[in-house]
C-alpha cells in the first residue's frame, strides 16, 4: 500500500487521504463506457434519445429499452448499467405514485429529482452497498403549465438541472452539439428530432457495433404525455440526419 | 379584561379508579368520562366566486352539560384553508393536528401554499384508515391559486366529496330542506354569509346540541376574516 490513495478504493465508506471516495468515481467511470444518452428541454417539451448498441444480428429490434416512463408526464433515459438503473426507475415510479395518492397532485419534477438524488446517495454511504453504475436523465412536463424540465442524477447522488445534456461515451461531442442546437430557445421537440438524430449518428464511434436509435418525448405531438417517438417519424428523421452528415462531409 | 383564575390545589378526582367492577355510572352523571366531549354541532361551508364562507355554532357538550359555550369549531389549517369539525372533539382536534403537521411539511417541500384538495385528501386518508376508531366529520374549505374557492365534505366513513355547499353535525338534519330551498348557485360573498348565518341560526333553534354564537370565517385570496354573531342577535331564534 505505497503512495497516497492506494488501498482506499475498496469501500465506499472510506475516504482516501486526499479526500476522495474512489468507489463513487469508479461508478462514474462505468457510465462513460455506455452508449450515449441525451435529453434536451425544448420550448414545448422534453426529448430523449439513446444510442443502443446491437450486440448481435439476431437481436430483435426494439429489445432492451433504455428510456422508461415514470408517470404520465415524465420519463427517464439511462446511461451505464441498465440493471442498476431499474432500481432508480422503479423507485421513481413508486415515489410518483405515492406522492399522488397522498397529495392528489402530480409530483413536481424538482421534488422527484431531489428524492431520487437522495435515494442514489444512500448507496454511497454504507460499506454493504455498491453505488449505482448509472446516471439517469429525468425529464417531465408540468401538466398544468406545460413547462418542461430536465434533471441529471449521477452515482454520487448529485442532481443537476439542465436545458440539455448528454451522458455516456459520446457526451463531450454531443454536449457541444446540443449547445449549438439550444442556442435557438424557441426550438420545438418536433424540429429538434432531426438534429438530435444527427448528433447521435455524428458521435457514434465507427469502431463500435452498429446501433439502434431509441427516442421518446413529452410534447404536444404526444399530447404532453410520455411516449416513444413514432417509428415512421424517427425513421424519416434518421434518414434526413444521415443525408445532412453526408452533405457536410462532401463539403469538406 | 380577561381574568385568569388561580389553579385549584385540591386533588383532582379520577373517576375510573373509584368505580368497582360492573358498577355503571349514574345515567345523569354529566362528568362520566366515557361520555366524552363531543361537538354536537351545526357546521357548514359555501363556495362563492373567489372564496368560501365557513360557519359554525359554538356549543361543545358533554352529554347534557355545555362544556364550552364559545368554542371554535373552525380550525385554521393553512393561510387560506380552514376546516369545520364535528363529532368527537378529541378525535377531530387530534386529526387536525396531524394534518397541520403533514400539510406544513408539504408546503415547505412545495415552496408555495398547498392546494385545498391536498388538505382535504390528508383528512380523508386519516379518516378512512381509522374509520372504526373515529367519530369525526370534517368540512374542508379554502382558496387556492389553481382552483379558487372549494368546499370538500368528509363525512363519517371517510369519503371525500367536493360540493358547492356542505353541512354536517347534529343540527344539519333540521336545516337540509331549508338550505336546498334558499341556496342559489352564483351567490355573492355577502349573500353567502347571510345564507350561512340564517341556516345555522335555524339549526340552533331546533337542535339541543347546537347553540351559543355563530362564528363565520370568510376565505379569499387576500386571506382570512373571522367574525361572530352573539346568540341574542341571531336572525332567527326563540
TrEMBL record, chain A:
It is found in: Cytoplasm; Nucleus. Residues 8-30 form the Proteasome alpha-type subunits domain. It comes from the Eukaryota. Keywords: Cytoplasm, Nucleus, Proteasome. Pfam families: Proteasome (PF00227), Proteasome_A_N (PF10584). InterPro entries: Ntn_hydrolases_N, Proteasome_alpha, Proteasome_alpha-type, Proteasome_asu_N, Proteasome_sua/b. The 26S proteasome consists of a 20S proteasome core and two 19S regulatory subunits. Belongs to the peptidase T1A family. This is Proteasome subunit alpha type. The lineage of its organism: Eukaryota, Sar, Alveolata, Dinophyceae, Prorocentrales.
Automatic annotation (TrEMBL), chain B:
The keyword Cytoplasm applies. Coiled coil: none annotated. It comes from the Eukaryota. Keywords: Cytoplasm, Hydrolase, Nucleus, Protease, Proteasome, Threonine protease. The keyword Hydrolase applies. It is found in: Cytoplasm; Nucleus. It catalyses: Cleavage of peptide bonds with very broad specificity. InterPro entries: Ntn_hydrolases_N, Pept_T1A_subB, Proteasome_bsu_CS, Proteasome_sua/b, Proteasome_suB-type. Gene3D superfamilies: Glutamine Phosphoribosylpyrophosphate, subunit 1, domain 1 (3.60.20.10). CDD domains: proteasome_beta_type_6 (cd03762). Component of the proteasome, a multicatalytic proteinase complex which is characterized by its ability to cleave peptides with Arg, Phe, Tyr, Leu, and Glu adjacent to the leaving group at neutral or slightly basic pH. The proteasome has an ATP-dependent proteolytic activity. Belongs to the peptidase T1B family. Component of the proteasome complex. PANTHER family: ATP-DEPENDENT PROTEASE SUBUNIT HSLV (PTHR32194:SF0), METALLOPROTEASE TLDD (PTHR32194). This is Proteasome subunit beta. It comes from Prorocentrum cordatum. The lineage of its organism: Eukaryota, Sar, Alveolata, Dinophyceae, Prorocentrales.
Amino acid at each position: 500500500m505505497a503512495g497516497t490513495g492506494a488501498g482506499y478504493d475498496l469501500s465506499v465508506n472510506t475516504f482516501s487521504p486526499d479526500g476522495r471516495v474512489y468507489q463513487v468515481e469508479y461508478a462514474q467511470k462505468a457510465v462513460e463506457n455506455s452508449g450515449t444518452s441525451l435529453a434536451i428541454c425544448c420550448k414545448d417539451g422534453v426529448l430523449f434519445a439513446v444510442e443502443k448498441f446491437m450486440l448481435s444480428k439476431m437481436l430483435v429490434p426494439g429489445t432492451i429499452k433504455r428510456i422508461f416512463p415514470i408517470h404520465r408526464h415524465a420519463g427517464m433515459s439511462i446511461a451505464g448499467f441498465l440493471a442498476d438503473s431499474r432500481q432508480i426507475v422503479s423507485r421513481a415510479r413508486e415515489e410518483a405514485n405515492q406522492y399522488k395518492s397522498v397529495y392528489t397532485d402530480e409530483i413536481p419534477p424538482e421534488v422527484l429529482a431531489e428524492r431520487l438524488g437522495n435515494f442514489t446517495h444512500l448507496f454511497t454511504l454504507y460499506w454493504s452497498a455498491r453505488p449505482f453504475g448509472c446516471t439517469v436523465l429525468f425529464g417531465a412536463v408540468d401538466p398544468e403549465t406545460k413547462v418542461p424540465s430536465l434533471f441529471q442524477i449521477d452515482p454520487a447522488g448529485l442532481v443537476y438541472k439542465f436545458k440539455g445534456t448528454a451522458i455516456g461515451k459520446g457526451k463531450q461531442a454531443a454536449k457541444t452539439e446540443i449547445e449549438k442546437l439550444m442556442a435557438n430557445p424557441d426550438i420545438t421537440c418536433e424540429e429538434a428530432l432531426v438534429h438530435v438524430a444527427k448528433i447521435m449518428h455524428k458521435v457514434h464511434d465507427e469502431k463500435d457495433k452498429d446501433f439502434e436509435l431509441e427516442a421518446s418525448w413529452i410534447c404536444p405531438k404526444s399530447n404532453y404525455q410520455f411516449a416513444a417517438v413514432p417509428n415512421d417519424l424517427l425513421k424519416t428523421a434518421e434518414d434526413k440526419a444521415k443525408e445532412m452528415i453526408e452533405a457536410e462531409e462532401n463539403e469538406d | 379584561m380577561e381574568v385568569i383564575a388561580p389553579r385549584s390545589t385540591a386533588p383532582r378526582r379520577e373517576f375510573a379508579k373509584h368505580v368497582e367492577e360492573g358498577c355503571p355510572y349514574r345515567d345523569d352523571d354529566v362528568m362520566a368520562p366515557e361520555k366524552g366531549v363531543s361537538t354536537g354541532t351545526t357546521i357548514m361551508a359555501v363556495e362563492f366566486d373567489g372564496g368560501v364562507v365557513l360557519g359554525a355554532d359554538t356549543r361543545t357538550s358533554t352529554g347534557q352539560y355545555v362544556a364550552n359555550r364559545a368554542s371554535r369549531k373552525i380550525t385554521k389549517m393553512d393561510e387560506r384553508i380552514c376546516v369545520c369539525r364535528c363529532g368527537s372533539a378529541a378525535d377531530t382536534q387530534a386529526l387536525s393536528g396531524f394534518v397541520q403537521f403533514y400539510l406544513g411539511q408539504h408546503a415547505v417541500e412545495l415552496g408555495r401554499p398547498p392546494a385545498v384538495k391536498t388538505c382535504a385528501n390528508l383528512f380523508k386518508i386519516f379518516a378512512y384508515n381509522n374509520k372504526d376508531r373515529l367519530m369525526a366529520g370534517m368540512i374542508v374549505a379554502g382558496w387556492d391559486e389553481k382552483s379558487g374557492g372549494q368546499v370538500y365534505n368528509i363525512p363519517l366513513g371517510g369519503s371525500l366529496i367536493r360540493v358547492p355547499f356542505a353541512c354536517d353535525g347534529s343540527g344539519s338534519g333540521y336545516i337540509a330542506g331549508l338550505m336546498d330551498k334558499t341556496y342559489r348557485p352564483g351567490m355573492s360573498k355577502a349573500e353567502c354569509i347571510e345564507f350561512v348565518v340564517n341556516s345555522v341560526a335555524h339549526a340552533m333553534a331546533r337542535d339541543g346540541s347546537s347553540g351559543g354564537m355563530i362564528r363565520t370565517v370568510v376565505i379569499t385570496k387576500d386571506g382570512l376574516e373571522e367574525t361572530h354573531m352573539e346568540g341574542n342577535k341571531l336572525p332567527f331564534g326563540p
